[in-house]
Design goal:
The relative contact order is 0.03. This protein has helices spanning 2-143, 149-182. α1 (2-143) runs antiparallel to α2. It has 183 residues and is mainly alpha-helical.
Length: 183
């Protein structure tokens, strides 16, 4: 019996050791279960984060797609603006040429107006100095009709003709002087 008791004691000691090891294993399994539970929570959170990231990526893709479309539209607008600017430059160039030609035309018109002014002044002087004077001379000659008609007629006709000729010659000399000054 002592052998049996010793064997039983040994078995008992082994069982106690096993129980201790099982308790230890239970403790470790419990710790592992807690770790697994924490890991499951972490995985669940990671899944949520991945889901949110997928949604964010989807939204980013949509935004990038919209940006690409906006950039395409902007490129078209810039192309149209460049064409408009090119056309405006051409128009401005044409306008500059038109303004240059207008300036030349205005310069020529000024010269023409200046020449016309000289001619009008000359006509005014002719009317004032020659025609009016001749009319005055003729009128004065008619006043003398009280005198004898024959005498007055001869003298006055010659006098009037001479005065008209003198006035005409004076006017022609004045015109020649002006022409020489202008030239």
């Amino acid at each position: 019996m002592s052998d049996t008791n010793a064997k039983l004691d040994l078995i008992l000691v082994q069982m106690l050791q096993m129980n201790s090891k099982i308790d230890k294993l239970d403790s470790e399994v419990s710790s592992i279960k807690e770790d697994i539970s924490v890991l499951k929570e972490d995985v669940s959170m990671l899944k949520e984060d991945v889901s949110m990231l997928k949604e964010d990526v989807k939204m980013l893709k949509e935004d990038v797609s919209m940006l690409k479309e906006d950039v395409r539209i902007l490129k078209e607008d810039v192309k149209m603006l460049k064409e408009d600017v090119r056309m405006l430059k051409e128009d401005v160039s044409m306008l500059k040429e038109d303004v240059r030609m207008l300036k030349e035309d205005v310069g020529m018109l000024k010269e023409d107006v200046s020449m016309l002014k000289v001619r009008v002044d000359s006509l005014d002087l002719t009317l004032e100095n020659e025609t009016n004077r001749n009319i005055k001379i003729i009128a004065e000659g008619h006043v003398d009709l009280i005198r004898k008609f024959d005498e007055a007629l001869k003298v006055e006709n010659e006098k009037e003709i001479l005065l008209v000729r003198v006035t005409t010659l004076e006017n022609e000399v004045r015109k020649i002087k002006e022409f020489i000054k202008v030239s």
